[in-house]
Amino acid sequence: MFNELPAEKAYRILESGPIVLVATRDADGRANLMTMGFHMMVQHDPPLVGAIIGPWDHSHHALSDTGECVLAVPTVDLAETVVDIGNCSGDALDKFAHFGLTPASAQTVEAPLVRECWANLECRVADDGWVRRYNLWVLEVQRVWIDTARKETRLIHHQGDGLFSVDGDTLDLGARMTKWRDLMG
Fold first, then answer.
1. Domain extent listing, the chain
2. Rounded to an integer, what distance in angstroms lies between the CA atom of residue 16 and that of residue 136?
3. 144-157: per-residue pLDDT in tens?
4. What's this model's pTM, rounded to 2 decimal places?
5. Which CATH code for domain 7-184?
6. Which has fewest Cβ within 10 Å: 96, 149, 154, 167?
């Protein structure tokens, strides 16, 4: 027996990517963080990520002005901080200082890496043609940094309305991916 869920709750079913922190640096040099769950891989080569960042987000203005950001991937130990970051605005608050996070220099963008995160992806805007209509930015990943010394690597996934799931066991079926082996290089 199926129970119906309202169509506007589709994200609760399909949004499986990890929560990320979007780090930006505005034209005045001020760094900011926002929490984001609405993102998706668009393609592998070049590596493109679609990200929903609207004008209601303080980071939207910095991304519009500079065309670059960092997608920082936090682990479950940062879950409460990640939620708290998403519940305040960077227009009046230095989120790095307030939440005790450490900005680190990136190599190809001015936006900062987040030292406490397991992964950081330096990105540049590849296409902003969908921003006006859908708030959808297409970002090209320039560099990826992984903290291999981190003990905690479980990612968090938003399921809507304050519910989150946490990565568990990994199921490795790579040997069965014969059709895609050449593409995955």
1. 7-184
2. 18
3. 999 999 999 999 99
4. 0.91
5. 2.30.110.10
6. 149
